[in-house]
Amino acid sequence: xxxxxxxxxxxxxxxxxxxxxxxxxxxxxxxxxxxxxxxxxxxxxxxxxxxxxxxxxxxxxxxxxxxxxxxxxxxxxxxxxxxxxxxxxxxxxxxxxxxxxxxxxxx
Length: 107
Ligand code: SF4
Ligand code: SF4
Fold this sequence. Notes:
Blueprint: E1 3-7, H1 9-13, E2 30-33, E3 46-49, H2 59-67, E4 73-77, E5 87-93, E6 98-104
């Protein structure tokens, strides 16, 4: 088991700051879902972590705590995070490559 970043959707969706998405060193690992949380009445959507790409560096935690001042991200053991953080792989095609990303898991 290992630690991954887990974003509190409720805190994040209240801000729409998107700061952490600019600092994660792993490409396409923190992304922003504009529709996330709207079913719960949140207006702006929320950042989310593709946990299968997260390397556990905690840089996003520092950014959210100290730069954004929102404290929405915690490092948690991957087997302890809730279902909302699970992801399924999706792929997209660019000119010569196929990239595999992940999106929030939905049943
Ligand atoms: S820095 Fe924090 S509040 Fe801002 S988008 Fe990231 S998780 Fe959400
Ligand atoms: S812990 Fe590191 S790799 Fe994982 S989402 Fe945060 S900044 Fe990206």
